[in-house]
Amino acid sequence: EAGVAQSPRYKIIEKRQSVAFWCNPISGHATLYWYQQILGQGPKLLIQFQNNGVVDDSQLPKDRFSAERLKGVDSTLKIQPAKLEDSAVYLCASSAHGRGYGYTFGSGTRLTVV
Amino acid sequence: TQLLEQSPQFLSIQEGENLTVYCNSSSVFSSLQWYRQEPGEGPVLLVTVVTGGEVKKLKRLTFQFGDARKDSSLHITAAQPGDTGLYLCAGSLAGGADGLTFGKGTHLIIQP
């Protein structure tokens, strides 16, 4: 089966600019997650979708980050305006069952804010 | 405060040696997973453990979930250069939301 697709792979922007990342999960996976991985650390959950509804966005900095999952398939994560500390790899993962089972991660988007 | 503490953070050993990586918490997890991540790629799932005291083996890798479901270990026997990578433990909190909480990871280098 095809894996989780993410684009772009790399993005460099200046602070205060906006940026968007795209994720296409594995077909049929109802649960989709966005994680932020800062260099040298483990991934941190930003938001979880179940189909097209938000299940958990408690760690999403909502003043600058937004995410949507239209029609319960693809998802986009947006940052506006970006700050230097947003430099990280943004990982998308999907799961058929949730509850920590069967996660498949994409290769991520490496964001550098200068 | 880090919910999952991994140790050691860095480990460099010779090919053929054995090693153990630890993942500890004061919280109870309904399940715990181990991932391996290579540079420029997303984490890849190695194993999921769900029962306290459970032991799972994957070739030269042995995973154990603590009896109280608060800690886990990963033991590698006869390490090979191909085992080099970032090893991450991650868990779903008992009674919590679905999303995984990750440790900071152990950077493992196996020298030929």
Tell me the major beta sheet of chain A: 7 strands, mixed
Low-confidence stretches of chain A: none
Task: Count every helix of chain B, treating DSSP H or I runs of 4 or more residues as helices.
Answer: 0
What is the rounded distance between the termini of chain A?
Answer: 37 Å
Q: Helix coverage percent of residues of chain A?
A: under 10%
Please describe the biggest sheet of chain B, giving its number of strands, its sense, and whether it closes into a barrel. 6 strands, mixed
What proportion strand of chain B?
over 45%
How are helices and strands ordered from N to C of chain B?
Answer: EEEEEEEEEEE
The string of secondary-structure elements of chain A, in order, is EEEEEEEEEEE
Percent strand of chain A equals: over 45%
Give the mean pLDDT of chain A.
92
User: Helical region count of chain A?
Assistant: 0
- Rounded mean pLDDT score of chain B: 93
Total strands of chain A: 11
Kindly name the structural category of chain A.
mainly beta
**What is the 3D form of chain B?**
globular
Helix content of chain B: under 10%
From the helix content, strand content and strand pairing of chain B, which structural class follows? mainly beta
Question: Which features would summarize this protein structure in a list?
Answer:
heterodimer, A: 114 residues, mainly beta, 7-stranded mixed beta sheet, 48% strand, B: 112 residues, 6-stranded mixed beta sheet, 5-stranded antiparallel beta sheet, globular
Fold and architecture overview:
The complex is a heterodimer of chains A (114) and B (112). In chain A, strand 7 (65-68) and strand 8 form a beta hairpin. The radius of gyration of chain A is 13 Å and the shape is globular. In chain A, the strands form 2 sheets. In chain A, strands 2, 4, 5, 6, 9, 10 and 11 form a 7-stranded mixed beta sheet that branches. Chain A has 114 residues and is mostly beta strands. Chain A has no helices and 11 strands. Chain B has 112 residues and is an all-beta fold. In chain B, 0% of the residues lie in helices and 54% in strands. Chain B has strands spanning 5-7, 10-14, 19-24, 29-37, 44-49, 55-58, 61-65, 71-76, 85-93, 101-102, 106-111. In chain B, the strands form 2 sheets. In chain B, strands 2, 4, 5, 9, 10 and 11 form a 6-stranded mixed beta sheet that branches. A 5-stranded antiparallel beta sheet of chain B has the order 1-3-8-7-6, with no helix packed on it. Chain B is globular. The model of chain B has no long low-confidence stretch (mean pLDDT 93). The interface between A and B is medium-sized, with 28 and 24 residues.
